[in-house]
Amino acid sequence: MQVPAYVEYERATSVEHALALLARFGPRAQVLAGGHSLIPMMKLRLVQPETLVDVGHLTELRYLTVTGSVLRIGALTRHAELLAAPEAGRHFPILHDAERVIADPIVRQWGTVGGSLCQADPSEDLSAAFAALNATMVITGPDGTRAVPARQFHTGPYETVVAQGELLTEIQVPITPGAGSAYEKVGRRVGDWPVGAAGAAIRLDGDVIAAAGIGLAAVGAEHFAAPEAERSLIGAQAGEQALARAGQIAAEHARPVTDQRGPADYKRHLASELTVRALRRAVARARAAGRSAREG
């Protein structure tokens, strides 16, 4: 039987209270949101905080709204809430694609978007999706708030730029009319961490790719992104040749490792194939969005 080490527990009643608790208990304190990543690690004693600061009940960080041309997602929004939000699916199908293959319905009811991002697992689906969308992470600390691009948020496996005493409070995603996005994943079983995954966001100018974002998970892509593959797409015709080339470049720059989920060569193959599949669906959705805009 696996049992966590003894730990003190504090329940925050507001963001300000949470920050005060983190300042009070210092570096041995750990933030608890949904707990689906932290608690198993505590049971294995991979992490042993002295104090848990529970922010899971802060409704002020549990929202999803469109403000101007930005989708704003509170860090404590549950996975199930993001999956059910029509505005998220309408503007960013990639988010619904990704959420459908994250864990299972029970975990999605309690796990939080911000908790998943801060866990910073190299196989984390939403990290790849938000990298493809060039989202922005809003971090709140004793000195106020700061905005960090999604591609600068993760500094390494299980590491982020969120400093001790700070909280991730919001994710902001810019809305681009007429864009399309998609997410593709291969796992060993339904709801598992991916063996490999890729997300894509595309904006077309006619049939020319005007902007492209590619996110990768579980294949060793730095910052969950494939910038070299993105650059190969800009200005290209949105056809199979350009998409295949982007997939090849994404795979060339990935750094997968052999582990219990599969050999490195297979993961590199997935990086290429899933990038092409995600791009293909993103292009189709961008074309459909363009037709709807013209007809409307």
Distance between the termini: 60 Å
How many DSSP-defined strands?
13
Low-pLDDT stretches: none
Q: Cα-atom Rg, whole angstroms?
A: 19 Å
Biggest sheet, spatial arrangement of strands = 4-5-10-6-7
Number of domains: 3
Beta-strand level of the residues, as a percent range?
25-35%
Class inferred from helices and paired strands: alpha+beta
Quick one: CATH class of the largest domain? Alpha Beta
Helix tally equals 12
Main beta-sheet annotation: 5 strands, antiparallel
CATH architecture of the largest domain: 2-Layer Sandwich
Task: Tell me the overall shape.
Answer: globular
The run of helices and strands is EHEHEEEHHHHHHEEHEEEEEEHHH
CATH topology of the largest domain: Enolase-like, domain 1
Write down the overall mean pLDDT: 95
Helix content range: 25-40%
Per CATH, the superfamily of the largest domain is CO dehydrogenase flavoprotein, C-terminal domain
Describe the structure.
- The protein has 296 residues and is α+β, with helices and mostly antiparallel strands.
- It contains twelve helices and 13 strands.
- Strand 11 (179-187) and strand 12 (194-205) form a beta hairpin.
- Helix 5 (93-100) packs antiparallel against helix 8, helix 10 (227-233) runs antiparallel to helix 11 (240-253) and helix 11 packs antiparallel against helix 12.
- It is globular.
- The mean pLDDT is 95.
Descriptive keywords:
single chain; globular; 296 residues; 12 helices; five-stranded antiparallel sheet; 3 domains; 13 strands; Enolase-like, domain 1; 26% strand; Uridine Diphospho-n-acetylenolpyruvylglucosamine Reductase, domain 2; Uridine Diphospho-n-acetylenolpyruvylglucosamine Reductase, domain 3; alpha+beta
